[in-house]
Amino acid sequence: KQAEKAVHQKKEQSKTKCRKARRRHINLVAEFNRRQRKNIWLETHIWHAKRFHMIKKWGYCLADRPTEKSYRACYRAMTKHCLLQDLSYYCCLELNGKENELLKQLARICSPDTGLMFGAEFCLSGRFEGSLNLYRADHYPEDMLGPVTFIWKPRDGSENRQLWIWMHPALKQDILNELKAIFQCSEPEEICIPEPFTTSIQEEKQTDVAVSLGKKRKKKDKDGEEAVPVKKIIGDGTRDPLQPYSWTSPATGIVISDRTMEILRYRLIGPLSHSVLTETLKAAALQTV
């Protein structure tokens, strides 16, 4: 019986493509985007994946420890040169509204007993970053939410101000719910609609159809030009793509926006950090029309 089955069974075609097909640019990009469905990649993922052991935490794929057996290279960079860390997985919440209203409500979730608050003068100017611990509204010293860092956008002459609050992804949902409660933000303003995802199999079918019709083996867009696939960081590891990412308050006019993965964040450690920034960042030339 087993021999008869073997004779009648059709040989399944292998789904594994040859290396040349896998290394084709359109397939590489599709694979890059496909592998982020469960765990979001940072901008520096490819560089880290070649040199570090990766772990999956908080909805992201993060570098845990280097593949080298020694940590001397990192220690040497921290003490004598410059070490860069990618902290883009930290969550960013943006608050927009009148300065007085923002300070009035934010004072309910922190205390001067723990240090400087959101209204500290040197922080309000936007020149320095502040840090503090957040609590449930009017519950200090109980019900601590966690530590955060914040920075104000410098004043532009209007009474409206912009504030960015950075926090660990494990704390984001609790802090976001508390901010929406104190500012009475219940109406979602914007909902993220993910772009249609094209798999590598679908793209291969498109190229096969083009070849059968006698066309070149190049994908065309609507205007007839060559469509260049783009690597995309898909979504946010702490939020479902179909959930809203911006809320507004009809009573106070405050708008809360989730800017996670929209603003990259890097940390430089070491005595040459300032020199590296000076050599890397160049002032743009002013153009007057």
TrEMBL record:
Superkingdom: Eukaryota
Recorded GO CC terms: nucleolar ribonuclease P complex; ribonuclease MRP complex
InterPro entries (UniProt xref): Pop1, Pop1_N
GO process annotations (BP): tRNA 5'-leader removal
Domain Pop1 N-terminal: 4-97
PANTHER family for this protein: RIBONUCLEASES P/MRP PROTEIN SUBUNIT POP1, RIBONUCLEASES P_MRP PROTEIN SUBUNIT POP1
Protein name: POP1 protein
